Structure formats: C-alpha cells, structure tokens
Amino acid sequence: MEFVKSSAVRKRYWARNFVGWPKFSATQPNATHHALARFEREERVQAVVTQNVDRLHTKAGSRNVVEVHGSGYVVKCLSCEYRIDRHEFQSILASLNPAFKDAPDMIRPDGDVEIPLEYIENFRIPECTQCGGDLKPEIVFFGDSVPRPRVDQIAGMVYNSDGLLVLGSSLLVFSGYRVVLQTKDLKLPVAIVNIGETRADHLADIKISAKCGDVIPKLFDFRNSKSAS
Q: Is 87 a residue of the active site?
C-alpha cells in the first residue's frame, strides 16, 4: 500500500484530510439515515451495515452499525494498538502546521481540495505517542482487506436475519456484494433501492430504481395514512 511505503503519500493524504475535515465532520444525516434509525428503534431493522466511513448512521441514532470499511473518525497506529479520536488529532495537526490557518481557502467550490505543493512538502504529521509508528485513519483503503472478524460479524447478522435491504449502493465493491451472496445462499429475500443498476440486480427479489430519499422516508407517510383511514 502506497500510504505505508511513501512518506510523500502520507503527507499529501493528511494535508488534504486536514483541510477537508471540518466540512466532512460537520455533515449531518439525511432523511434516509433518520428513517433507518427509526426502523431500528421499532425493531424492524436488526442492524445497519455501511460501506461509508462518515458515521452518519450513528449521528442519526442507529445503534447497531457495522462500518465495513472502518471509520474516518478514528486514527490508528500501523505498528501498535494506539488509537486517537480524529477531532483530537485535528487539533494536534493544527498546532504542528500553523501555516494552514488559511486552509478553508484551499477548498474549491466543487468541494475538492487544492493545496500548494510547498504546503504539502512542509506538512508535519505526528508519530504514534506510544511507539513512534506511522498513523493512518481506521479506514480500509483500496487494495486492503476488510478485517476477518468484521466479515464474520456481518455473516452472523445475515444468518440471523429475515432478509436484506440494500440502499443506495451499486454493490460494485465485493465487500457489499458478498453480503447479497450470503443472503441468497440462505434463500432469504433481497430488496434493492438504488437510482441505477447494481451488480446484484439479477439476485434481487425486489428492485426499485429510485433515490433512497424518495422512497424510504415516505414509508412512514404511507403507514400514517393507512392508520388514519
């Protein structure tokens, strides 16, 4: 993995991550996130398995959440078990890189980050306070493998479920597609809501081609209208 091998790659990654963190961490859940949290409270959903690293499901109130690809809210050491909260890590990065006080100006209107090369080259990253190792977000990068205990945990959830609801994913990444395969191996139903084609359309018992926000939150409206009639 280039992040591990190259100091220049780590500097570029952390510089961009530092600039983008305030906006990323301030993002709030949408109506679908809140709907799923409500489904869990009503015991209609056993758990949420997400490929995203933004913790929006947790922010919305979901409690049983498995983050397949980890979380951007935790920073870990590559050499020992040290962990640190990403907000706390942001403060450390800010103290080490006072030249980045104008960081908000580096975010373009399209949301991308444009940092001058000299800023990246001079960006300082702290070492692990316990062993001096390199630090990275607790995220499964492209080319990495999802930790086996997490894979087994999801498989156990599928085994104890009544079926699978896929929301807003093309399932092109195997870690998501594998959950569909496990569900069908158990002869359980699969429903998919996604605005475009998915890798598992041929396996779905129900496929709705729509935005999740146009479908999932409205289920409560439907239930309320039925109750009132």
A: no
